[in-house]
Structure formats: structure tokens, C-alpha cells
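Minutes, structural biology subgroup

Action item carried over from last meeting: produce the C-alpha cell record for Tripartite motif containing 67 (Pelusios castaneus). EB confirmed the sequence was re-checked against the source entry. Recorded below for completeness.
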Amino acid sequence: MEEELKCPVCGSLFREPIILPCSHNVCLPCARTIAVQTPEREPPLPALLQPPRGPAAAAAGAAAGPEAECAAGGGGGEHADKLSLHSESDSGYGSYTPSLKSPNGVRVLPLGPAPAGASAAAPRGAGPSSSLTCPQCHRSASLDPRGLRGFPRNRLLEAIVQRYQQGRAAARCQLCDRSPPEPAAVACEQCEVLYCAACQLKCHPARGPFAKHRLLPPPGLQGAPGGGKAAARKLPTCADHELENYSMYCVSCGTPVCYQCLEEGRHGQHEVKALGAMWKQHKAQLSQALNGVSDKAKEAKEFLVQLKNILQQIQENGLDYEACLVAQCDALVDALTRQKAKLLTKVTKEREQKLKVVWDQINHCTLKLRQSTGLMEYCLEVIKENDPSGFLQISDALIKRVQVSQEQWVKGALEPKVSAEFDLTLDSEPLLQSIHQLDFIQMKLPPVPLLQLEKCCTRNNSVTLAWRMPPLTHNPVDGYILELDDGDGGQFREVYVGKETLCTIDGLHFNSTYNARVKAFNSSGVGPYSKTVVLQTSDVAWFTFDPSSAHRDIVLSNDNQTATCSSYDDRVVLGTAAFSKGVHYWELHVDRYDNHPDPAFGIARINVVKDMMLGKDDRAWAMYVDNNRSWFMHCNSHTSRTEGGVSKGATVGVLLDLNKHSLTFYINGQQQGPPAFENVEGVFMPALSLNRNVQVNPFHTQKGRPYLSHQPESTMAKYGTDMVKTHE
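Output recorded by EB:
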């Protein structure tokens, strides 16, 4: 609150504050220093409020514009008489030319000389041709004949200042080392520090930069501002009628008035209200306005707490990033050191190899040279002998030895086997460039992936989704997360996480609607989801034999619609569709059946064993049959032997009811034995195992009651006989 209690001119607490027409306050002594007297050649105030006359006045009026004319021509009672809105480009009356700066930072006018003819004893600003410029908003106010006494005294502010001064604690020196500190002798208004006499001489001498500081008695002492007992507050009296107290409030002028103000007629035609009622009303309005300010102050405090938390986080994150940077650079230095050691090892090995080769060559050459030199010296001594018979006895042998010794120095024997140069060149330029380009990258979350609808499709109960990143995307992407719901409007689940932008999901429900979405992620986090794409699986299933899952001994033909196996051992082939719910029925036609083999028909998991009869492992459920009877088999367990077999031209039907979780078989339209298996759950694919030249071809599907084998010709024509189709 202290800043609200300081004068904008002197920067000290208000002394005898007065209210200017612009609602700002100023000390009465300060008002005397900034009051400006108008030169005698200037017209009086009433003339200024009239429209300008004459060529010069017309030019000034034209320059000021219609707004100035409105401001100058509009009357309005006492408030308009005291307040002039002329700018500095007007006639100059009441203009504001700041040249001095107060301790509070507000520039004020210098103290000018009194006009000629003015009484030396008259107070500055008391003349009728004077004006006062507000040091805060720079609006000029004209003084009436009463001078500064014409401005109302702000007794409320004066009382608050007095209470504020009295409310200060007993003053003690703020720089003493003693405990308790010595009583304060002075208070520096600029430093806002209390000093005892000793500390004031030591820490605040009256010279140098402290020479212009204002030393005041400390608060609470007799004679200090606000010291002693507060004088009894008097009821404010009217500025125009000093003997009358304020009793009413003029709503038009916005000022308290007395009884005589209403009787004399100045406010007689104005709207007036009771002073107490308006006092309560304005207090309520101020309280209501303060509530809004209080809310904003609360938000500001919360915002400051948020900013302080951000400061703390910045400090912590800065330390973390510094540690991370040091660790990364240390890791690079360690890696470079290890690589340096490896390269030095290579250089050492290369040097040792070259040295070994050279030393071996030196030793070999030295030995030969010593042998040749010894032989030469011996031959020279032999030549010196004069015994012809003795010479001829050994000359042939010596000649041969010399010739052999000469032949030992073949071409290349006197050439170094290795070079002194090292054929090792370290290409460090790319690494140097990388080091020079080593810098921080602004990691951000990846953007929203774009689904490529033209590449998204469904086939039977499989869906394929494709997506890409938006063009001109600079944020790195480490991978993608593809999510799919359950086909019944349930929650999404992750079905793929990886770097690919194309994914196929198999084994979904037939005749179901799936919603899919994708998002990208990097080291900064996970980005937003893409738009949701809706995919509809087939209402019925078409499938052929799958060459990718068939054993290599299975031969597929007729666009993978016919399966044959000439191997003696059983081999498995699967269909291209997978079933997880609903009722499915398909039929297989036995085109070739010789030598009484035993093919097996049924369902299997995708990871079923392919080199044994269907049903021998725990991932297949089957019926194997010969020309006389059949058995159901799962986990190599044979059950439910039933008479009746197959032959060339027979039709085998498979009914998979995933609603009842049962599997039933048919031969030529008649149910073969009881329901083969119960409690089958999961995802299954059509399967069969063949051997010994059996050939099977998909026949047709039954619409309606799926376990019946016969159907009208129109249905056969619609679905054909070349592919298997199942209903869900």
C-alpha cells in the first residue's frame, strides 16, 4: 500500500493531499511548485472555452480538429471550469513541458518566475490566471481566484497516511550487530533503512552519493511524521462555505455539497441524494469491484506459484540435461578411446609384421653374404697357389660352388620384401563433420498419421490398413501403434506396434464392423490418434487352399482350388479363411480315391503340424475315413468309430458351429456319427490331410440350413462350384 500513499512529485508520503479534477492526488506543497502562471498576453479561461476567433485562432482550431472544438465548446459546470483538455498543440495555455524528474520518477515543470506585476508575497499559483498540470496524466486544470484552495482536500487519504505512519513498529537500527539493536536515530527516505547514530555515520555519511538523500526522524518518535497521538479528526467542511458541513451528494457533479450550495442555486437544479445513502452505495460498488480485483490477485498468486514451479523445473531439467549431455559426450569419448586403442593395435601389428619380415630378410641376406664372402676369400687364396696339380684337384668343385653361390642371388633376392610405408589411411573426415554438426535437436511429438484409405481393404475376415506421415514432417518417428476395437463397439486394443506402415489383421469376425486408428511415437512420447476408419468384414466367407501354409508334398491346382498328394505319408493343407464365431459349413468333393487311403477332414490352428495326419497333434480336430468306416481324432486319440466310408465322387461336409462350440461331419449329406467334438473355442481354419494320390476339390456351400448338402440350382449358380463359401 505504501506506493499508493506517496506523492507522484516528491516521492514521499502525502502531506496535505489535494484532489485534482482528474481524480489524482498531489501534496499541497508540491502543487505550489508545479503551478504555472499564464502570461498576460494569454486570454483568460472563459475566452479559451469559446470558439476561436481571427485568422490565427481559426488556423489553430483547424489544426486541432473537430474533437478540440467539441472539447473547447462544451460547458459543464464547475468541473469543466477547472479542467482544460487542450493539448500541447493548442494555444499553449496549460501546456505540459516536462524538464525535471521527481524522486518518484515523474517529470514535473520547473519552478518558473512569477509574472510581472504579481505581488511577491502572494503564493505561487494563487493568481486567477494560473493552471496546474497533473504530474501523472498530464491534464491541465485551471485555478479559480481561490487558487489551490479551490481543490478539495483529500482528508481520507491524509487520515490513512497518518494511520500508516502510526502503525509502524518502534524504530530500531537495521544495521546494528548488537542484540538488541540500538534505537534508530534517523530514517533514510531513499534507502528505506533505519540507522542509529553510530551506523548512520559509518554506513550513511552525508557526502558522496548519500548527500542528496533525505534523512527523516524514525517513525514513532515525537516530531516524526505521524509521531505522537493522532489529532482528533474534524468533520470536513464545504470548500465554498467553510462554516457548513457536507450534508448531501450532487449526482450530476459527483461531489459532496452543503445546504448553502443547494440554496444558492449552483446545484439547485442538479440531482442530489443523501450523503449517507450514497456513501453506502459507493462503498458497496467499491467492494464489488474489489472482489474482481481479488479474484485476479488470487489468479496472479497461483500464476506466480506456477512460474516458480517452472523455475524449479527448469533448474532440475537443466541439471538433468547437463548430466545427460556429459554422459553422452563421455560415451562418445569412451567409444573414440576404445576405437583408438583398436586402431593402435592394428598399427602395432602391422609394424611388428613389417619388422619381422625385414629382420628375417636381413638375417638371411647377412648369412648368404658371409658365406659368399668366405667363399670369395677362399677362392682368391686358392688362385694364389702355384701348385697346378693341387689346383686342378679342387678347381672343378670350386667352380661349381661359385656358380651355385652366384645362382643363389637370383632376381629379387636383393629387393626388400616389404615397404617402409604403412598402407593404413584413417578416414576421419566424416567423423569430424559429425562432431562439428553435433547439436541439440528439438524433439517434438510426432504428428497425426494419415490413413491411406485407397490402400485399406477387407478380404473375408481379414483387414489391411495402410498409413503414412504428413508431408514435410521433420519430427522423427520411432514406430506406430495400431488399435482396433472388438467389432461390437467395444474398447480399442493394440494389434500392432512397429515401424511398418502396412498391417494385415487376420482371424476377425465375419459380418462385423471394426473401427481402426493409428498413432506414432518417438522418444518424446506418443502423438495424437489419426482419424478412425470403419472396416466391414465379409458377411460370408470364400476361401481356397493356402499354398503358403501347405506342406511341400501337397500339389495345388485350379487356382488353388484342387489339392492332391502323391506322398505315402499324410500331408496337411489349410484354407485361406479363419473362423472365430458364427456357424460355418463347407463341403469337399473327393475327385480321386485309389488303393483305400484314409484322408482326414476338419479344422486346425494356423500352427498345426503339417507332416502327419490331421488330428494327431493338439492343434487339429478331424475325421479320418477310409472306404468302410471313419474315426474322430484329436491329440492322437481315436474315438467314435462309425461305419460308412468314402469313394471316388463322395462329398464330405464339415459343420463348425461356434455358437454351440461343436464340430459335426457329414458324408454325402448324411451325418456321420454323433457330433464329433464339443467345447471347441478359438480361431480355426479349414484343414485336411491327404496321401497316396487322393485328390479333393471344394464343392459348394449350403445357404440357409448349412448341414444340408443339396440346394436349388439357382443357389449353385450364384455361388459356383469352384470355391468354398461359408455363412456366419
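Discussion: Residues 376 and 402 are 8 Å apart (CA to CA).
Next step: EB to file the record with the rest of the batch.
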